[in-house]
Amino acid sequence: YAAGVTQSYLPTITGVVVLVPEARDIVPWAHITILAPFGQQPAPTAGELAELEEFFAGEMPFAYELTQICTFPSGMRYLSPEPVSAFSRLTHGLHQLFPEYPPYEGAFDEIVPHLTVVEGDDSLQNEVQTALEPRLPVKAEAREVTLLVEDDAGHWRVGRTFPLSRPAE
């Protein structure tokens, strides 16, 4: 580097999510977060990726529905998945496997699985709610889990996918 030139390194943010293609017409990057942030900086290690692969290989695919529009105390609107327990179980299992990565960095006492719909002023949120209600429920199936990676410019990309591959009993 030339004298006086410095390079800043922004942390890479990763998250383990279930993508919801059935809701992409509602939210382009529709997803339900399982665990974020995830991994060592600047990216998850090969060992962590292998543990993710093994963990999800032991999980069965499952059907779910996005059933209602809910609101967090912050005012953010979200779609609630049913059964919520399927997502909670995955989050809890990953947090047990990786206690060094608490969900949302430990910011919340209770983790509520959700698909974020809109943040913003009340009029925008009310408009979105009115448009969405007739489209619910959205039927979906979780067949794989995705590691999303946010780059330095704030764009998300798919880092890797992990199939839910335990056979049905």
Any overview of this molecule?
The protein is an alpha+beta fold and about 170 residues long. It contains three helices and eight strands; from the N terminus they run ββαββαβαβββ. Helix content is about 20%, strand content about 30%. β7 (about 145-150) and β8 form a beta hairpin. It is globular, with a radius of gyration of 17 Å. The relative contact order is 0.24. Mean pLDDT is about 85; it is low at about 1-10.
Detail the topology: elements first, then pairings.
Elements: E1 13-19, E2 31-35, H1 46-57, E3 62-71, E4 77-82, H2 84-97, E5 115-118, H3 122-132, E6 138-142, E7 144-150, E8 156-163
Antiparallel strand pairs: 1-2, 1-7, 3-4, 3-6, 4-5, 7-8
Short description:
It contains three helices and eight strands; from the N terminus they run ββαββαβαβββ. With 169 residues, the protein is of the alpha+beta class. The longest helix is centred in the middle third of the chain and has 14 residues, at 84-97.
